[in-house]
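Subject: sequence -> structure tokens, single chain

Hey, anyone have a minute? Need the predicted structure for the following. Not urgent.
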Amino acid sequence: MAIRDRFSKKLNCPQCGNAGFAEASEIDDPKRKHPDFKVDQLPRGFGVQRAANHQESFMIKCECGRKFPFRSLAEAAAERR
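Reply:
Had a minute. Here:
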């Protein structure tokens, strides 16, 4: 069984300013065609618009109605306190 890479990303909605940290994971195996990307936990105010196997295609929806790809408006959670 493949090991899953786990990471946190900070989500920021440019429309309403809603923000928070998402917990995500994907399979850490470069030979696989699909990394099986999954968002394991979303912050309050965000939901899944469309699930996908890749971060770039995974669509998030903010409670204000703004939709965006997970990766486009996320940043690495370097020093989360």
